[in-house]
Write a structure and sequence with these properties.
It contains seven helices and seven strands. The termini are far apart. The longest helix has 29 residues. A seven-stranded parallel beta sheet has the order 3-2-1-4-5-6-7, with helices on both faces. It is an alpha/beta fold. It is 46% helix and 13% strand.
Amino acid sequence: MDFTNKVVVITGASSGIGAATAIHFSKLSAQLVLVGRKENNLKRISLYCEKAKAVKPLPIVADLTEDSDVERIVKETIDQFGKIDVLINNAGVISMGGLKDSNMEMYDRVMSTNIRAVYYLTKLFTPYLIESKGCIVNVSSILGSKVTTNALAYNMSKAALDHFTKCVALELGPDGVRVNSVNPGFVKTNLLKDVGLSEDQLEMLVKNIVCRNPLKRQVEGDEVASVIAFLASDKAKSMTGTFLNIDCGSLLSS
């Protein structure tokens, strides 16, 4: 796969799956727009990407829950490159808890980042994606379809994101824009550390998940990045409205 002269926007690019995706696309010669909240991390990932193929990314420090920041992402991308070819909606947050032990502040934070921000950023980029006959890849989760009780708002947000993928694929297909989703199982990233899990708690969670999935391993970030790149490439030119699960078989287990 080769993304030379393709402008690829990646949200949540300062860590986790987003950082792995940025590095992967840099090796495929993409012109990258890397969006993240953590400036130091974003600079570090941008420098790593630039060294890979001597293509300097455009880093944008932004909070996707702020409409003005979302609007600025679009403006800076178009001002710099004049187009967009691939939008990767990866940024997301998680809150732990079910209906009985969560609050509306947690709910609003998750929905604002995982759904509202995706909706608005995609809406603003849509005219440019139609012009380039580009594509969208949403990073969802198997928890959009797998029922659990310990992350209700997050699970709901990913179910909504999956439906968003299908609806927008149907709407934009006639305009030549493909919309797909990659749905990972457990990937050990900073996402869970951000909700307060200690290293010991995280290790216990990993062991519990790994022992229950058929392949007895966890998903690596670069594996998810490879699937995202496939969906964004011409190799997937007949795919839209599709979810690709990458979960070590977790959906097969109870």
